[in-house]
Amino acid sequence: MVEFRVDRAGGLPAYLQLVRQVKEALRLGWLRPGDRLPTVRDVVGTSGVNANTVLKAYRELEFAGLVEARQGAGTFVKAGLGTVDPEVMAELRAGLADWVAKARTAGLENEDVDALLRVVLAEEGVEIA
User: Which part of the chain is the HTH gntR-type domain (predicted)?
Assistant: First the structure.
């Protein structure tokens, strides 16, 4: 099950942070069709956001066709986003974790890592917001 984290200092609204985290969990294979999302009450308790914020995020995910709300049962994953074998994804994640450790040893901060990633993606023709 996904455990939500909300960065109040970040510029992204809390509901979009929740949406992003669900999408990331779907891409990484941590959530799969049929899995139940945490209840609104649980998310409010662990992340400290307002219940309306959680509901807004869940509605956004439902509108995107990724989850479905079942009356009295909760919100369940309806569709996945991951297209890569979970084992391959785990191997790539481990390699990236090693790279980040090397970057930290070299003195890079989050902004430096982000800048490098954006440059490499741009060189590949990928645009990120």
Answer: 12-80
Is 58 within 8 Å of 77 (Cβ atoms)? no
Does residue 73 share a domain with residue 21? Answer: yes
pTM, full prediction:
0.74
Q: Dump pLDDT digits (tens) for 48-74.
A: 899 999 999 999 999 999 999 999 899
> Does residue 102 sit in the same domain as residue 70?
no
β-pair partners for 68: 76
What is the distance, to the nearest Å, from the Cα of residue 7 to the centroid of all Cα atoms in its chain? 13
Show which of 77, 95, 114 is a domain's final residue: 77
User: How far is it, in rounded angstroms, from Cα 125 to Cα 123?
Assistant: 5
